[in-house]
Amino acid sequence: xxxxxxxxxxxxxxxxxxxxxxxxxxxxxxxxxxxxxxxxxxxxxxxxxxxxxxxxxxxxxxxxxxxxxxxxxxxxxxxxxxxxxxxxxxxxxxxxxxxxxxxxxxxxxxxxxxxxxxxxxxxxxxxxxxxxxxxxxxxxxxxxxxxxxxxxxxxxxxxxxxxxxxxxxxxxxxxxxxxxxxxxxxxxxxxxxxxxxxxxxxxxxxxxxxxxxxxxxxxxxxxxxxxxxxxxxxxxxxxxxxxxxxxxxxxxxxxxxxxxxxxxxxxxxxxxxxxxxxx
Length: 279
Fold this sequence. Notes:
The protein is an alpha/beta fold.
């Protein structure tokens, strides 16, 4: 998607692990579930890094930790020169401006009682940025940038289409000028036409803002269109990581090969990618 090469690493993950304590349905006995462990990643500034795998692989749990919404049990998450796993609550409040998470279900993620302009302005209000008039002006600018009509500034989320709600979620994520957007199955609930339009929007925003994307998905068709680098998660571990072209041409791991075999034919996608590659 981007023209990123071997450049500066913006986000680095070392030995990351996360478990959850659950209770058995009838006995109420506690037991531990390992969401993921031993995760090692290096995400370059301005690139699109995809994390793929089946449901239950640990992708969404990893996304919440990378977005600083949950603390991992062990390991490190470095954003530029800061290990955020050691950050205080006050430091985390500031660091969350750098990384924003966009969820699969925009309807559930957006406050149904807020207007579009209020939804976009809310992160700025929470962070204590600008006055009310400046926040509203900024919200209107962001609506324009993501392709939403300004006449809809007073609309509630239920009054927008699915594709428009996802654009609204993207605008809200951009309100704090983040360096990283984490997209957790963010296109999964959209039809093909809206998926294509949102992909174009993401490419345009990345080119203009120098954004870094972590794109989490089970849909390799979309991953092939957006990713520069791909990591495959299986049962809570990274089993393969490589450049997108290499991944689709010569996957090394048997699980990765199974994922690719389950896809629709890749010839057209690969041909388009090769045409975009610099000589």
